[in-house]
Design brief:
Elements: E1 2-9, H1 17-31, E2 35-42, H2 51-56, H3 65-78, E3 82-85, H4 95-102, E4 107-110, E5 124-125, E6 128-129, H5 140-144, H6 152-164, H7 166-169, E7 174-177, H8 180-188, E8 196-198, E9 216-219, H9 228-235, E10 246-249, H10 255-259, E11 266-270, H11 274-283, E12 286-289, H12 299-306, E13 311-314, H13 319-323, E14 327-330, H14 334-363, H15 365-379
Parallel strand pairs: 1-2, 1-3, 3-4, 4-7, 7-8, 9-10, 9-12, 10-11, 12-13, 13-14
Antiparallel strand pairs: 5-6
Helix pairs in contact: 1-15, 3-4, 9-14, 12-14
């Protein structure tokens, strides 16, 4: 079986769980004998471009000619069975769906966010949830609020892209929804239930867990929707040292917030390489996922479970699906999170084994890759997809 995997990698300055999921998918597919043909673009490339080239590429979210030419060449040369699209923005464009279908190749898309209907993809703006563009023929509020990269001009391009490509999404043969919440979102957007499959993401198995550490770890992009401000406010309601250490790892616009806490029990680790991430998880007892947006299926939660670490998360989006019985769920408020912190610290050792069990039975690559290959097989030209 041959599969084109199309993905625009997010900027490395803000590490993305989506990038990690795509890398894990490719590795597991190849290990299972699938020939993977990557169609990859990197947002990091944009910083190296001249001003003229940036201006010329402004319409890439709507249509990117080089990505379409590369895909056409792959389709003609290799005759793949399926095209699997992850993130198309900004340098691939949903137009790859049309290109693949013109060549008679079925398309699968994993839905990692809400960008079919939301310009910034997270239903979050100015520190609060926002669904103002949902149901509108033209997502003009996104332009008015400069929802995409703080730019009205770039937001206008993305708003036009969402409008033009609304019919494009109906040409996708199968959507892979990481959680039931995303499946419901797709149904509300008009995608028939028969074209949506719930398939969780997987993360690589780090091996048998180390004994639980102590304290808490926040690991992720330092952006408002990830709930760092909520976590720090909840932490501040407890005496210094009473909860052990709070480790914060990641990078992004809220970096200064982490370096200016002024408490010895809050340690900022910065951006970590994979070995550093494993060490930080090992040293902690609980991973905190305090998102204040409907987070789809945070990779950090799956990595926590894989390492035998229970998760303290907010009851937002797909976080409840990830955590299940292997942790604690709270409302995204300071009092609720503050009340849960000492409970989580006390109960964490008893949930370590359950966390690992949940990973092995729900998010292990062996299970998830088999489901993915079954989806490809059903859609391939000689399959039974109808």
């Amino acid at each position: 079986m041959k599969v084109v995997v199309a993905h625009n990698r997010y900027a490395s300055a803000q590490p993305s769980g989506e990038n990690a999921v795509v890398e894990a998918d490719i590795a597991e597919l190849r290990a299972a004998g699938v020939e993977v043909l990557p169609l990859v673009r990197r947002s990091d490339e944009i910083a190296t471009w001249s001003g003229l080239r940036r201006a010329a590429s402004a319409g890439s979210p709507l249509y990117n000619g080089s990505a379409q030419r590369e895909l056409r060449a792959l389709l003609r040369r290799h005759r793949p069975d399926v095209v699997h699209l992850h993130n198309p923005y900004p340098l691939i464009s949903p137009w790859v769906v049309r290109t693949a279908r013109q060549h008679g190749v079925p398309v699968v898309q994993t839905v990692h966010n809400y960008r079919q209907v939301c310009v910034n993809g997270v239903f979050f703006r100015d520190g609060a949830g926002c669904t103002e563009c949902v149901g509108r023929a033209l997502p003009l509020p996104a332009v008015r609020h400069a929802c995409y990269r703080g730019s009205r001009a770039q937001s206008a391009v993305m708003a036009a892209t969402l409008t033009v490509h609304r019919p494009t999404w109906h040409r996708v043969d199968r959507f892979l929804a990481p959680t039931a919440a995303i499946a419901d979102h797709l149904h509300r957007a008009g995608i028939p239930a028969g074209r949506v499959t719930i398939k969780p993401n997987a993360v690589a198995d780090p091996g048998p867990p180390a004994p639980p550490g102590d304290g808490f770890l926040f690991l992720g992009r330092l952006v408002p929707e990830k709930g760092l401000e909520l976590l720090l406010a909840a932490w501040a309601l407890h005496p210094v040292g009473s909860l052990g250490l709070l480790r914060i790892a990641g990078d992004g616009p809220l970096r200064r917030m982490c370096t200016g806490v002024g408490r010895p029990d809050v340690v900022f680790l910065g951006s970590l390489d994979p070995a550093g991430v494993r060490a930080a998880v090992r040293d902690s007892a609980v991973i905190v996922v305090p998102s204040v947006w409907p987070d789809v299926l945070p990779t950090v939660a799956l990595e926590a479970l894989a390492a035998g670490r229970p998760v303290l998360g907010t009851a937002m989006g797909g976080i409840p699906d990830a955590v299940g019985p292997a942790g604690w769920l709270v409302a995204p408020t300071v009092p609720a999170l503050a009340a849960a912190l000492p409970i989580a610290r006390r109960e964490a050792p008893a949930l370590a084994a359950l966390a690992r069990h949940r990973y092995l039975t729900t998010y292990h690559p062996t299970r998830i890759t088999a489901q993915l290959i079954a989806t490809y097989t059903a859609l391939a030209p000689d399959g039974n997809h109808g």
